[in-house]
Amino acid sequence: xxxxxxxxxxxxxxIFGFSGFFLLMGGMLYNAWTYGFVFLVVCVVCLLEFYDLLxxxxxxxxxxxxxxxxxxxxxxxxxxxxxxxxxLYFFGLYPAFAVVxxxxxxxKHETMPFENIALTLLGVVYVAMPxxxxxxxxxxxxxxxxxxxxxxxxxxxxxxxxxxxxxxKYGKHKLFPRISPKKSWEGSAAGLVNSMLMVWLLSVYLxxxxxxxxxxxxxxVVVIGTQGDLIESMxxxxxxxxxxxxxxxxxxxxxxxxxxxxxAAPFAGIFLQGVFLDCPKSxxxxxxxxxxxxxxxx
Length: 298
Prior knowledge:
The chain is mainly alpha-helical. It has 10 helices and 2 strands, in the order ααααααββαααα. The chain has one domain (2-296). It is 72% helix and 3% strand. It is globular and about 60 Å long.
């Protein structure tokens, strides 16, 4: 019975894994707008899962207000990177954050106002901000690069797959048993090796970045992304749940699948913006350069 259940679980993982792969690849490859839409859906579902986890644990965050703020941050960042609107629109988020405090002030049934204010804002910071930072990475050269987002996910997938299968077969030394007892140093080391091999392939076939830039992105995914995986495990343990949701049979929830990205994306965005700082359409150039371009002005 156990073997049958394990076989069914593996089959579900493969079916939904490949289905998700092709959907993501299609969105990335077609154009910037399809990329933005696909990851908007992912961001929204991840936000809903996050708030539902908290509500299930008896917390009282403002679920739909947090969802609106997170979605707003995602969309504004995307449109700024597309050159459709000015970065000045980011200032519109400040009143939105302030309203959370006012709502809880007038909530007569609230017993832990600041805890629930913090949890509402945490959803925006922990989930939505990394997806917004993803735009900063893929538009770092001033225009949408499917190669950057594709390469980032190739690193995530090769690291995850290698670490999982090598860890299952050869893992003897636990990486972080207090949080995730199934992860091993052997699996992580294998993931790092395969990710560095991926650097060569990407530098040959995806040439928007040179080899050393791909190598840094790969290291960010392996080192920082693994921490993101452990942090999501810490969240689930603190709330005493196994998966973030059951939206993806065999995989758990969207948060379970994109946990690496949540921590890796901001670091990748900062790195690539720094590399292409002299690009006139770079967000950092737009915000910090003395030579303000028309894209920066409403």
